[in-house]
């Protein structure tokens, strides 16, 4: 997948000027907020469950090598095979080898962000194997030749008319009077087209929400059932998963599942939560003859033991991006790679380098909503600050920005000089803005005034000046009230 993260600012400007995208974002965002709010309100122990989820993931990461080896041993005991892949190239090669040995011409895929990260579809197509996306959102994006814009709602950026237009262009045999007025119409059209693909596929590829070390099981959650068809109908099932998806026990997995659906879609549980363990056994009605797990590192082990390890707790619920004011107006494509929003602003620099993704940790208001809604309490603003520090240390920030930060640091270390500079600056702006209320243009502040006015400060000094003045007035008022009470007591004593 082509990386455009270095062009985030240009990507964001195009997104802000796209009326169709703004319509889709304005419609979908509030719906996620409301559903999540209702689901959490119905679970009194949700906050306690967040602590449990955080602790499970922290314990697993502290013992990651042990649990990965335990998981691999269980997979092989159930007749499966584990492929250990350090890089994206190794993972693509492993998937291609499995498909070639199976004689595959068609591969069905359940939604998998790791496959987007690895570029699996493009690699299979380049080697004569057709991948077919079966998630409804991924299917429409494959027809449009677009990447996902959201990790749980891949077609988050599209409106109903976009779906209809794509179907009419791609499904050339559609009757002229075929209606797509309802969501069910879209679903039925995709279902008819995909049914034959499910039956013809030689290999099915899914992602994994969790890998259970205790049982050797992979777990996927879906709302469409396509994941089940992808892993049970073909002769070969391939699970693509990154190493941090492992959890110790079945009980740990169920605790995290209670967090996942509520945080992602506002459901108590997804419609389908499917556990797969090994190959088809004697007496099983369905299931694959071969079961492969492609375990991918691709830079994640480099995060273990660093200040970015907390990011590996992520369970891919997308709550952070659903509540992010930046994602809410730019959408996912502006971030320029697989993982958008706050979680992408931390994970992407870890995987492709801060030199390519340095804009992303700067694309944040630091309002803290992402951390407040994260089901496993990842301190996303703190991690973005760490990336900003790395970017500054490596001299990747623009020279003007570095000079401004050096000047601010010099002043911040000298309180008297800082207060004097603030008084002079605010006083000058207050005089210039007297009677205006706001500046539509101001030298040195073009980055702000290009898109919005800059409020003019009111006369009265800096915040600290006003605060100290109010504190003096409050103490003076308290002394006066105390004097009045004492005077009243003396008068009462005289009367007695």
From TrEMBL:
Pfam families: Fer4_8 (PF13183), LUD_dom (PF02589). Residues 443-496 are annotated as: Disordered. Residues 466-481 have a biased composition (Basic and acidic residues). InterPro entries: 4Fe4S_Fe-S-bd, 4Fe4S_Fe_S_CS, FTHF_cligase-like_sf, Helical_ferredxn, LUD_dom, LutB/LldF, NagB/RpiA_transferase-like. Keywords: 4Fe-4S, Electron transport, Iron, Iron-sulfur, Metal-binding, Repeat, Transport. One of its GO terms (molecular function) is metal ion binding. Residues 305-334 form the 4Fe-4S ferredoxin-type domain. Residues 484-496 have a biased composition (Gly residues). NCBIfam families: LutB/LldF family L-lactate oxidation iron-sulfur protein. This is Iron-sulfur cluster-binding protein. It comes from Teichococcus coralli.
């Amino acid at each position: 997948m082509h990386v455009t993260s270095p062009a985030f600012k240009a990507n964001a400007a195009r997104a802000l000027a796209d009326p169709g995208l703004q319509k889709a974002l304005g419609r979908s965002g509030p719906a996620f907020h409301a559903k999540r709010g209702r689901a959490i309100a119905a679970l009194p122990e949700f906050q306690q469950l967040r602590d449990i989820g955080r602790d499970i993931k922290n314990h697993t990461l502290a013992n990651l090598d042990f649990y990965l080896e335990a998981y691999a041993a269980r997979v092989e005991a159930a007749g499966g095979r584990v492929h250990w892949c350090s890089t994206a190239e190794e993972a693509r090669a492993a998937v291609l080898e499995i498909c070639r040995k199976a004689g595959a011409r068609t591969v069905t895929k359940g939604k998998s962000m790791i496959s987007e990260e690895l570029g699996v579809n493009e690699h299979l197509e380049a080697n004569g194997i057709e991948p077919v996306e079966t998630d409804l959102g991924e299917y429409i994006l494959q027809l449009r030749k677009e990447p996902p814009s959201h990790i749980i709602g891949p077609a988050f950026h599209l409106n109903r008319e976009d779906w209809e237009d794509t179907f009419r262009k791609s499904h050339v045999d559609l009757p002229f009077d075929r209606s797509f007025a309802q969501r069910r119409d879209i679903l039925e059209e995709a279902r008819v087209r995909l049914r034959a693909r499910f039956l013809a596929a030689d290999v099915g590829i899914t992602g994994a929400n969790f890998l259970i070390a205790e049982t050797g099981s992979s777990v996927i959650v879906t709302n469409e059932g396509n994941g089940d068809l992808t892993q049970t109908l073909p002769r070969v099932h391939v699970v693509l998963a990154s190493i941090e998806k492992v959890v110790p026990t079945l009980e740990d997995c169920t605790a995290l599942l209670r967090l996942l659906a509520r945080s992602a879609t506002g459901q108590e549980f997804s419609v389908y939560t499917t556990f797969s363990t090994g190959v088809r056994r004697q007496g099983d009605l369905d299931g694959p003859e071969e079961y492969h797990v492609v375990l991918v590192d691709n830079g994640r082990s480099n995060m273990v033991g660093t200040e970015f390890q907390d990011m590996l707790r992520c369970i891919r619920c997308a709550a952070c991006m659903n509540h992010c004011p930046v994602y809410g107006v730019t959408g996912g494509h502006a971030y320029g790679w697989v993982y958008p929003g706050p979680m992408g602003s931390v994970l992407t620099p870890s995987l492709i380098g801060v030199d390519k993704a340095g804009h992303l940790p700067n694309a944040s208001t630091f309002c803290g909503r992402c951390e407040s809604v994260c089901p496993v309490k990842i301190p996303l603003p703190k991690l973005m600050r760490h990336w900003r520090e790395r970017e500054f240390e490596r001299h990747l920030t623009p020279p003007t920005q570095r000079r401004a930060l050096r000047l601010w640091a010099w002043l911040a270390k000298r309180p008297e000089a800082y207060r004097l500079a603030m008084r002079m600056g605010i006083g000058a702006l207050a005089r210039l803005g007297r009677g205006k209320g706001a500046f539509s243009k101001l030298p040195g502040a073009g980055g702000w005034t290009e898109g919005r006015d800059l409020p003019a400060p009111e006369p009265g000094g800096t915040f600290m000046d006003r605060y100290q003045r109010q504190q003096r007035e409050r103490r003076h008022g308290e002394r006066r009230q105390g004097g009045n009470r004492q005077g009243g007591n003396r008068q009462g004593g005289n009367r007695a």
